[in-house]
């Protein structure tokens, strides 16, 4: 198959990392793979580890940018001549469908977040609702996200495919665990709800003053978080460590991984933490991805209510005070590496592509 993806960029975070894993595995299965990047200049043809990238970045006012971007997408599709095209995320889905509205090329959209929250505006939600009717197939990460689009889907082809995982071989070890919590996330309270994390840790810290919290990532709320930490005299126990290239080697020596998001698609940071066996506490966030991951490895006890700092703190207490529970959770979590092994997940993608092509 000649397969074309559409995404914003290849920055190896979130959806980009997932697409990279899928694309490389598709190449190894003797498929041709190209990627159209909305943030890459049209004049540039790139190479990301053997994956050819084409640009569709446009400038000018809003209308001019959209028209040029759609034109660039069409021109790139003509060059690539794919059998099927797949876009990742609401923004890319809308742009791909707009550009190829009258094309007979089989078009698949892939949702990457909780559609109740992303996009935020009603007008963008309406545009998505309208254009999704023109897709030939849909890929969702969870049943919960699939159900949101049920009225649009009707009798069209769908697949619920979780994210793939690459087992790094890194492992958490209770004997080497330091008295610290760790999280890896964008500093964005609208989605990640990190003020609740701070409050939960503050409650926990009153009983366990020898623990610290390390937060890896950057984002729009970094300045606000720094002020909050200083104003609440938490600067000796909560540390904003910035974005790092190798988070797993940094969190593997923590006692517990924390996720306090209000909503997610399939939270990659949680999935990767589970893959190394560090005990995880996660909110049962919108989108259903965290629940799927925790339930899949028999760790549902690590799920807590969204936005409830006292319950999160209580769960933190119960874990750090129970060595056997931490080791049991760690052992169970490693099952995720077999369940979401990349070859298994990519075969699900290939089977879905074949199903779409047979009908189109």
Automatic annotation (TrEMBL):
| Start and end residues of each Glycosyltransferase subfamily 4-like N-terminal domain | 13-165
Q: Which UniProt keywords apply?
A: Transferase
Molecular functions (GO terms): glycosyltransferase activity
* InterPro entries associated with the record: Glyco_trans_1, Glyco_trans_4-like_N
- Superkingdom of source: Bacteria
- TM spans, by residue? none
Q: Which residues form the Glycosyl transferase family domain?
A: 177-332
Protein name listed in UniProt: Glycosyltransferase family 4 protein
Q: Which organism is it from?
A: Holdemanella biformis
């Amino acid at each position: 198959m000649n397969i074309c993806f559409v995404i914003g960029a290849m920055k190896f975070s979130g959806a980009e990392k997932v697409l990279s894993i899928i694309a490389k595995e598709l190449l190894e299965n003797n498929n041709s793979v190209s990627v159209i990047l909305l943030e890459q200049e049209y004049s540039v043809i790139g190479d990301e580890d053997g994956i050819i990238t084409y640009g569709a970045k446009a400038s000018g006012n809003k209308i001019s940018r959209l028209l040029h971007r759609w034109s660039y997408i069409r021109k790139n599709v003509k060059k690539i001549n794919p059998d099927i095209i797949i876009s990742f995320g609401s923004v890319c889905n809308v742009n791909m469908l707009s550009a190829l509205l009258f094309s007979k090329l089989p078009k698949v959209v892939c949702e990457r977040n909780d559609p109740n929250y992303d996009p935020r505006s009603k007008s963008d939600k309406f545009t998505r609702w309208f254009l999704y009717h023109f897709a030939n197939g849909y890929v969702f990460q969870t049943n919960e996200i699939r159900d949101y689009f049920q009225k649009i889907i009707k009798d069209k082809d769908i697949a619920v495919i979780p994210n793939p995982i690459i087992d790094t071989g890194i492992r958490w070890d209770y004997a080497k665990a330091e008295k610290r919590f760790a999280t890896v996330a964008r500093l964005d309270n609208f989605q990640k709800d990190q003020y609740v994390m701070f409050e939960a840790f503050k409650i926990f810290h009153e009983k366990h003053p020898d623990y610290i919290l390390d937060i890896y990532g950057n984002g729009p709320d970094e300045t606000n978080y720094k002020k909050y930490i200083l104003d609440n005299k938490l600067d000796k126990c909560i540390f904003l460590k910035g974005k790092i290239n190798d988070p797993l080697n940094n969190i593997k020596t923590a006692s517990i991984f924390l996720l306090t998001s209000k909503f997610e698609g399939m939270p990659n940071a949680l999935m990767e933490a589970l893959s190394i066996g560090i005990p995880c506490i996660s909110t049962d966030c919108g989108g259903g991805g965290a629940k799927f991951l925790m339930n899949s490895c028999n760790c549902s006890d690590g799920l807590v209510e969204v936005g409830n700092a006292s319950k999160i703190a209580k769960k933190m207490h119960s874990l750090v005070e129970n060595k056997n529970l931490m080791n049991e959770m760690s052992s169970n979590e490693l099952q995720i590496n077999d369940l979401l092994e990349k070859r298994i997940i990519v075969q699900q993608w290939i089977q879905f592509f074949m199903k779409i092509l047979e009908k189109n």
